[in-house]
Each structure stands twice: as structure tokens, then as C-alpha cells.
Amino acid sequence: MTHLIDSDWVADWLKGRDDAIQLLSSLRRDAIAISLITFGEICEGIYFSEDPAGHERVFRQFLRSVEVLPLTRPILRRFARIRGELRRRGQLIGDADILIAATAIHNNLILVTRNTRHFERISDLNLYLSG
User: Fold this and answer.
1) What is the mean pLDDT of residues 54-76?
2) Going edge to edge, which strands form the sheet with 67-69?
3) Exposed end of the chain (fewer CB within 10 Å): N or C?
4) Looking at the DSSP assignment, which residues form a beta bridge with residue 34?
5) Quick one: which of 10, 12, 115, 14 has its CA closest to 125?
6) CA nearest 84: which of 74, 92, 75?
7) For residues 14 and 51, is the Cβ–Cβ distance under 8 A?
8) How confident is the model over 68-121, as pLDDT tens digits?
9) What torsion, rounded to 10 degrees, do the Cα atoms 23, 64, 62, 113 define?
10) Residue 122: pLDDT above 70?
11) What angle do CA 118, 47, 50 make, to 5 degrees?
12) Does the pLDDT of residue 130 top 70, yes or no?
């Protein structure tokens, strides 16, 4: 496993957007994972969509070849250090993003996200830069 996929790319894959399908396919399905936080964010979108049953079916298909990484005590300790540092610098971002970043760092994964504006504030986080 080499890449952690953020919620924005997963949502776009589920919507059938070509760029997301191409990118995630190129990263080899056996080399990608999502955070438990992303799992929750995607489920929220599914439950409040126009077609919850259909979207859930597509998400289950996606999950067949993607590992969902849990939150652990070491990840939450890393979260606390990241959050404290961001707060100290006056650059705090949302807790969900910090948990996703902490998961990537703890598992030594490259984070694939479009939200580089927030995530670039976190030292030791490897971001996937496309194009």
C-alpha cells in the first residue's frame, strides 16, 4: 500500500468522473487505502443523496479493492501533535483533515487530495502532486 485517497477523490470516483477513475486506476487498486474518516464522510454523502441505495452499492464495489485504515491510539497521538502545532502557528484546519493526515503519516502513505491548501500546512505529510 502506497497511497491514502482523500474523500474528494473517492467522491469523484463514485460520481464517475474520468480524472478520478484514471488516477485511481493508475495507482493500482492493491496500493491504495482510505481512512476511516473518509469512509464516514462518503457514507454521509451517500445517506443524504438522491439515490442512497444505488450510491451505497457503488461504494461497496469500490471498497472491495481498497483497505479502510482504522484510527488507532498512535494515530490519535500524532493527530494531537499535528493539531497542537497548527494551533500554535495559527493555521488550524478541520479535525477530519488532521485525522486523515495523521493516518497517512503514521502508515507512511502518500496522501492523494485536491485540498493541498490545507494539507500543505502539515510537516512530514507526503502529498501526491498530479500533472
Assistant:
1) 96
2) 67-69, 32-35, 3-5, 110-112, 126-127
3) C
4) 68
5) 115
6) 92
7) no
8) 999 999 999 999 999 999 999 999 999 999 999 999 999 999 999 999 999 999
9) -50
10) yes
11) 105
12) no
Identify whether the C-beta of residue 49 lies closer than 8 Å to the C-beta of residue 84.
no
The C-alpha atoms of residue 66 and residue 14 are separated, in whole angstroms, by 13
Q: Report the pLDDT value the prediction gives residue 120, as an integer from 0 to 100.
A: 96
pTM of the model: 0.94
Q: Write out the E strands in the chain.
A: 3-5, 32-35, 67-69, 110-112, 126-127
The superfamily CATH assigns to domain 71-131 is 5'-nuclease (3.40.50.1010)
Domain boundaries, the chain: 7-68, 71-131
Strand 110-112 relative to strand 3-5, pairing: parallel
